[in-house]
Amino acid sequence: xxxxxxxxxxxxxxxxxxRDCGACTMCCTVLTVDTPxxxxxxxxxxxxxxxxxxxxxxxxxxxxxxxxxxWRRIAGMPDDARPDxxxxxxxxxxxxxxxxxxxxxxxxxRMHPGSKAIENGMASSILDVLCDRxxxxxxxxxxKKMLMHPEDCVASxxxxxxxAPPHLRDEVAAWRERYGxxxxxx
Length: 186
Known about the structure:
The chain is α+β, with helices and mostly antiparallel strands.
């Protein structure tokens, strides 16, 4: 278990000792890896991925040794939310040139093609757990990306800079304080 403090730990929590990846290798295909020591495009299996898992597991790159999906960090996520079981990979997402303040650092919920997570309610269960914190949550089915949290009325006020009605004032102010650094300059 990594002991170093990270943004993932701050926003998602520490790696849980009672959860392991098991046979799950979804991150080895779904995610983009862009580090000095290793690069891999999104949607393509890692060159080291084999039927039994990682061929270089003992000597895998630092990013692969220290990165863990949200299922490994958030105790409230159901056991069946493990990516290979649910068809959904949840991770912290970083966008270098965000189109709005909610894209810079956010939680990304990626549904794998063919997943039945919407039909069986798993997507809803996962979103219920994730949408209770001051971190933007995006959902992607592979064809489009949708902001799920904060709600549209709050998001539009944060982005526009408009005055919030009294019942939303504190929530809008909290989002602006935390994510204003990602506001696009016009």
